[in-house]
Amino acid sequence: MFQILLTYFKIIQYQICYYFLGIFAVLDDLKNRDKNKLEIISKPGKVAVITGGARGIGLEVVKKLVQCEMHVIIGCRNVKAGQRIIRQHITSNASIAIYELDLKSFTSVKSFAQQVLQNHDQIHLLVNNAGVMFVPFELCEDGYEAHWTINYLSHFLLTELLLPALKRSSSTNEHARIINVSSCAHEASPLINFGSISNSHTYITNAAYAKSKLAQIMSTKYYNKILANTNVQAFAVHPGIVNTELFNGTLLKMTMPWILSYICKVSYKLFFLYTPLYLYIIYFFLI
C-alpha cells in the first residue's frame, strides 16, 4: 500500500514539474523569438532523413525541407498511411521517399538504414524526430522499455549506421547535421539507473520519458565530442509546446484538452511557437 501511494506521489510530483518546465520553456521561446531564422534557402540535391515525418512536428519539418528543394526520406511504421498523409499535405512534385521504420525494433532500424544507404551515398541532414511520451510499460522486441528504445536507443543506432554517409556529404564549407528532437522534460529526469530502466516494478511513465530525453541530449554531446575534428555537427532541439498526438497520454490532454489547444493557439498567434522546430532545423542546416 505504501509503495502504491509513493508511486502516485511521484507521478503527481513529475506532473507538476512538467507544467513548470513547460511554462518556463514558453517564456524562454518568447524571449528568444526574434532569433528565429525565417528565410528558406534552396538546397537542391541535398538529402535529408527524418523519422516520424508523416505527422505532427515531423510533417511541418518535411514541408519546409521540401521548400528548400531537398530530397526527403521519411521513416514511418505504416508506409501506405504515410504516403496518403504526404499526398494530402505536400505538393505532388516534391522529392520524397517513404520507407518502413519501426523504432521498437533494432532489426527494422537496420533494414531502414540499409535501404537508405543503398539509394544514397551521401546524407546531408538527419532529423531524429519520432518519439513517444507517457506510454504504459512495454518491453520492445530487443528487451528494452519503450521510451528508452524509441526515443533513444533506436535513434542512436540509426545515427551510427548513417554516420559514414553524413561524413561523406560534409565539407569545410558545408557541414552535415544531426538534429535530435529533444525536450525540456530532460530537466525533470532523475539519475539514470541503467539496471532498472526496463524494470516494470519501478516503472513510472513520466520518469521514463524524462530519462530517454536526457539520454538523447547526452548522446548529442557525445557525438559533438567524437566528431569534433570532422565536418559533422549534432544539435539537440526543444521543439516548443506543440499540440500533437505526443500529448495523448498526458493528464492535461485527457482531462482538459481545450486548455492545451488554447495554449498552442495563443502561442501560434502571439509568439510563433506552434511549430518552431523547423526554424531551428533550417537554421542549423544553413549556417
TrEMBL record:
UniProt keyword annotation of Transmembrane helix present: yes
UniProt GO MF annotations: oxidoreductase activity
Sorted UniProt keywords: Membrane, Oxidoreductase, Transmembrane, Transmembrane helix
InterPro entries named in the record: NAD(P)-bd_dom_sf (IPR036291), SDR_fam (IPR002347)
Keyword Transmembrane helix: yes
Entry-linked Pfam families: adh_short
TM spans (from-to): 6-27, 266-286
Ranges in coiled-coil conformation: none
Similarity field: Belongs to the short-chain dehydrogenases/reductases (SDR) family.
Protein name in the entry: Uncharacterized protein
